[in-house]
Amino acid sequence: MVFSWFHLALIIFLLAGVLFASVPLLASRLIAPRFKGGDIDMPYECGIPPQGTAWTRFGINYYFYALIFLAFEVDILYLFPVAIYYPHSEGFLPLIKLLIFLFILGISVIYFWRKGVFSWPRRISV
Known about the structure:
This protein is mainly α. The protein has a domain at 60-115. Helix content is 60%, strand content 0%. It is built from four helices and no strands. The longest helix has 27 residues, at 5-31. The chain is flat. 0% of the residues are buried. Belongs to the complex I subunit 3 family. It catalyses: a quinone + NADH + 5 H(+)(in) = a quinol + NAD(+) + 4 H(+)(out). It is a multi-pass membrane protein. Keywords: Membrane, NAD, Quinone, Transmembrane, Transmembrane helix, Transport.
């Protein structure tokens, strides 16, 4: 294997990246004040003493909305490469594939809507 300037540049950039990541961590470890007690051990250090426990119960609806949002957001991200490739394509095959993808995405939205996923339920008091 022949060592070239390209290999030297890769090694230099690798070392620079490691230094760029480790120097702030090391500097904060050396410079940061070290004391315990007071408000440091509180769950939220905002200046207001907490009332009650730090453990709150969230409804599962928040997580359903987050998962559905992520699923559809990832599906929409698949459209960007198609939009970039589309002007360079010939024929109607990419358009047909895009319409099939959008049809499946639309059917899934209708399915979730009919299942009642998008309706926010009332809070159930226990």
